[in-house]
Design a protein that fits this description.
homodimer, 486 residues, alpha+beta, 8-stranded mixed β-sheet, 13 helices, aa-tRNA-synth_II/BPL/LPL (chains A, B), protein biosynthesis (chains A, B), ATP binding (chains A, B), ligase (chains A, B), aminoacyl-trna synthetase (chains A, B)
Chain lengths: 486, 486
């Protein structure tokens, strides 16, 4: 099969006219109808569609196809008769699954709903079919059947995760993957639109940095010409520098790198950070309110604009709809500890939350307040980084917070110390080498407004919103200690 | 000066009540007016403003201040009288420049326009002033004077670029920098909004990759646990995999890494790529039209929504307004070569454009067509990467294109080969080790639609749109072979 032929505005692929002749070049300006546009209103129309062969089943003098385009599919029929020859039916039946075809067909309303397709009220009666991109024979059965179909006809994969990730291109074609990543695109858009409307400025922060912050643990090293550099573990320092530079309210969306040998359902070595930092007027709760309102706008936007995607994912991975309150529930750390103790957990006031305790607290909060999203405020100072602002009223605690979705942490944030002297004192208290963080501390010597912020993990938000159980499902090409491909 | 004190909703910084007493805690819910809101409509009102001391000039019993907030500033006056003591005037005069102050003041309409301020029709008569964030004495004169003011009172820096970049936090406070990066934020937003409206999906591609594409030149190496990895030189492979995975039209905004030892005005080792890839129906010119229309929407959006920023930058760096045509001018490479030859340049048909020739051609195109933006289409096949689709009508050329702003390249793109067999042949022709690009070639074995795209350099677009002359001016924290800080 030839693959190109351009010039003028001719068609770039051969087509096979299935009454026996090759037709080529075809009309270049014929419109292509999208599969999701195939509704009973189009009944009787002769249209062109380009789609993949999802399934194919020959039966006597006819061949039933399911044509798939992204998360939508439609049934199609080639039958021997006035418009199609015996050879054409045979040809259509022999096209490898996952090949891309152009078909000319009449839209017909069906008597009985087609449960297995997204377009349930119509089918296509094919009059011409051309092969737009064929699969070579040896690849078909080996790969595409297992991944795109997984032995089922509903487009949901049943194969194991590593196999799916190894063949990610095919796995991403499933209706579930199409829905997940369309929703992820929506999260980014809602995040940015909400913040832009609040007067935030988008910034671009460097990923190659000269010094590892916070002492150099869990950081990837890069060869940089004749020297070494590091990959940024967070854009925090640069966000703060933008605040010192009077940008007032900033956000950024970009990769974050963690050289952590954690092989869990929720850790990646590279993930996408949705980061916020803002100067506040009088109280760091202004920062919490900005962030929680942004999250609420994301939740509402997903609920209102991405129902199709939520439903599609729910067919393969059923979960309870995501619940949230407005305004967002804010509990103090000590209240959280009290709830855990009441449930039988033994822990100290200044002890950090373990992952099981985080999840348990999530369940207790859900029972008591009926929300899947809440803020835990005023963490013990001892368990937070050196740049965290202490609580001025109780030095045991700090002006810092985590946010949780379905009992798992999606954001960690705080009011930052904006005074070089206090920052130096706190770094010394943590036994941090002052020489290594000199440029960070110096940023605050030229007048810095009080500020705070936080970083949100995009893949976690998508995973937890949809009630999925592995962050690799919401990372298009996940990176972990054991996976660098594709 | 103490830096924090929170609790309840008390104020988090000390203030000095300048009639001699300390007032603290102040009212936390007093509204803060933004400097750009200070217009004659507010005349007579007593308001609070938080801003930086931009300049300060004491003269007898009064002190004139200019208060700056981002790209806006306003004149303010403290004068001995009923509302202010002699000590207060002295105190105000002694506050270090670049400190952040809260002032309570009456807005007064002025008789004569204040040319040196953005708020030209009003001034503030200060009644109270509090220090929100002070500069330590030893830092003031040494740094901030040189950078934020550069010896001038209009907020435009005159110091050299390295000094400015070394002290980027202060340099970013200048009205010019504030305007540049607000406009850059706008470019990203316009890019994404235009594409989202066209049905594109935003994707997130990995930056840590297992194999260096295109043979491994100019790529940064990363230590990855017990093995090595690389930093992605472009998201192209991943964009193409998304097309093979039926996402149809995708874009991404993210860092791109080039280990190229180029020390020029337009090269960075890390820059932000605005990347597009789409399947097309019948002709790769559909791709060019999608991209050029996106650029035109960006140019229009900047012209219509960012005039303040364009004017602000123009005060320090005057340039001709950016001109573009609609639809965008598209020239074939051979036409460009003919224009250059007519202007006396000697070059072969299949020779690549040198940088001086690119600029010359830009000037010739501007003279003839009056546009600062155009597409050069159908590059010689010999000067393009192996994955570029050849022109089916003339094997000397290819279905590839560059786009130029003010005579400098901002995008390189092409129709990509979507057939594994042809791709293999072209790679062999380029003497590329097939083993190294196996996974890339394999991506096309499961049915790929015809597609094309390109990558735009964000910093170059901002630099050339504003008529600036160094890409480091439009990179917030630039990275080049000699610079890794701040």
């Amino acid at each position: 099969m030839c693959v190109w032929a351009e010039g003028g505005r001719r068609y770039m692929v051969f087509e096979v006219f299935l009454k026996g002749t090759l037709f080529f070049p075809c009309e270049p300006d014929r419109g292509l109808v999208r599969v999701h546009e195939l509704t009973p209103e189009k009944a009787g129309q002769l249209i062109w569609v380009r789609a993949r062969i999802h399934t194919s089943r020959a039966k006597g003098k006819q061949c039933f196809l399911v044509l798939r385009q992204q998360q939508f599919n439609v049934q199609a029929l080639v039958a021997v008769g006035e418009r199609a020859s015996k050879q054409m039916v045979k040809f259509a039946a022999n096209i490898n699954k996952e090949s891309i075809v152009d078909v000319e067909a009449v839209v017909k309303k069906v008597e009985q709903t087609i449960e297995s397709c997204s377009q349930q009220d119509v089918e296509l009666h094919i009059e011409r079919v051309g092969l737009s991109s064929a699969l070579s024979d040896h690849t078909t059965d080996k790969q595409t059947d297992r991944h795109a179909h997984g032995g089922r006809t509903d487009g949901r994969a049943t194969v194991n995760q590593d196999t799916r990730l190894d063949n990610r291109v095919i796995d991403l074609r499933t209706t579930t993957s199409q829905a997940i990543f369309r929703l992820q695109s929506g999260v980014c858009q809602l995040f940015r639109d909400t913040l832009t409307n609040k007067g935030f400025v988008e910034i671009q922060t460097p990923k190659i940095i000269s010094a590892a912050s916070e002492g150099g643990a869990n950081v990837f090293t890069v060869s940089y010409f004749k020297t070494s550099a590091y990959l940024a573990q967070s854009p925090q320092l640069y966000k703060q520098m933008c605040i010192c530079a009077d940008f007032d309210k900033v956000f950024c969306v970009g990769p974050v790198f963690r050289a952590e040998d954690s092989n869990t359902h929720r850790h990646l070595t590279e993930f996408v950070g949705l980061d916020i930092e803002l100067a506040f007027n009088y109280h760091y709760h202004e920062v919490i309110e900005s962030i929680t309102d942004t999250m609420v706008q994301i939740f509402k936007g997903l609920r209102d604009k991405f129902q199709t995607e939520i439903q599609t994912v729910g067919k393969q991975y059923p979960s309870e709809p995501f619940k949230f309150l407005e305004p967002t529930l804010r509990l103090e750390y000590s209240e959280g500890v009290a709830m855990l103790r009441e449930a039988g957990v033994e822990m100290g006031d200044e002890e950090d939350l373990s992952t099981p305790n985080e999840k348990l607290l999530g369940r207790l909060v859900k029972e008591k307040y009926d929300t899947d999203f809440y803020v835990l405020d005023k963490y013990p100072l001892a368990v937070r980084p050196f740049y965290t602002m202490p609580d001025p009223n109780d030095k045991k605690y700090s002006n810092s917070y985590d946010m949780f979705m379905r009992g798992e942490e999606i954001l960690s944030g705080a009011q930052r110390i904006h005074d070089a002297q206090l920052l130096t004192e706190r770094a010394m208290h943590h036994n941090i080498d002052l020489e290594k963080i000199k440029s960070y501390i110096d940023s605050f010597r030229y007048g810095a407004p009080p500020h705070g912020g936080g970083g949100i993990g995009l893949e976690r938000v998508c995973m937890l919103y949809l009630g999925l159980h592995n962050v690799r499902q919401t990372s298009m090409f996940p990176r972990d200690p054991k996976r660098l491909t594709p």
